[in-house]
# Entry
Amino acid sequence: MAAIWKGSIAFGLVNVPIELRSAVRSDHISFRLLHKKDNTPVKYHRVREDNQKEVPWDEIVKGYEYEKGAFVVLTDQDFKTAAVEKSDRIDISDFVDADEIDPRYFETPYFSIPTKGGAKAYAVLREAMRERNVVAIGTIILRQKQHLAALHVAGDALVVDLMRFANEIVPASDYNFPAASEAKPKEIEMAQKLVETLHGPFEPEKYVDQYRENLLRIIEAKADGRKADLPKREPRGDGKVLDLMAKLEESLKQARAPKERATAKTTAKATRRRRSA
# Structure
């Protein structure tokens, strides 16, 4: 993937020349709007709200609605005046403990890749951060917009995560959540057993977007003039919590079943080997 930004990481008097490349890729299925009559593509048009007449681009301006029906129009010069001075550096201002950052702050990750002459300083910064288990916090100007940024270690890479500012985070106090006293000790114990049964290493490749997979099968089948063969839907709970303990016990039984079957198969194979010997 092409670099989307070139500059340096600046901490203290040290500069690490880098470039940013995307660390994720979108994998969504794109659709076009078509006229139902003959599948001709349909385009969007810019129209007035009052009379639905189309408006050409050269007659469109940007406005902020400060109260219902009242707008302040902003010019190109207003945006230039508000813009932060461009910089080709990620200026590190703080190092914080990795577990102090609420995951809601993280938005978009990028790999920071050292460029010519930056390998040594890059490795030094990375290993120092790894030893202390810290995340670097700074700012970056990307596509004419200032972003809060977090720099953290991921294997041999330093990943730059664009972050949300504090005013973009909805405080938990805006909502009501149940107190710990709502949960009974026996229920917690049973839930812990269920958690332990399902506990294991994170293996992202085993999780599949089933909706996307189903759509692709339907598209492929329709293109071939046949009916799609989709996997059967697994039965789900009815959403009613009538007896929490009973639900937990049944969930625990279902979670243990695959492991018990696997253990039984392993034991059977071992028995057959001993008998044949």
Observations:
- The beta strands are 5-11, 14-22, 62-67, 70-74, 89-97, 106-114, 134-142, 145-154, 157-163.
